[in-house]
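If you are new to this repository, start here. Below is one unmodified record pulled from the training split, so you can see the exact layout before writing a loader.
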Amino acid sequence: MSKDQSSDRAKREANKAFKPATTQKPINDYAKDQNSFNENRERLKAERLAREAKPGSGSE
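And here is the target side for that same chain:
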């Protein structure tokens, strides 16, 4: 391995190790509420679809 290849490799590894941290902006109360609402809605939808897909659920 030549000197150029080893220095390039070292630079790539250093760049991987010292990637800039991705920062998230603080979430406000409204966004928290919306996120919770959407997660709950998706959970309930999945439960309903699972019940409806079960053969012989008997509600008909």
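Two things worth knowing about this chain: The helical segments are 3-17, 29-53. The longest helix spans residues 29-53.
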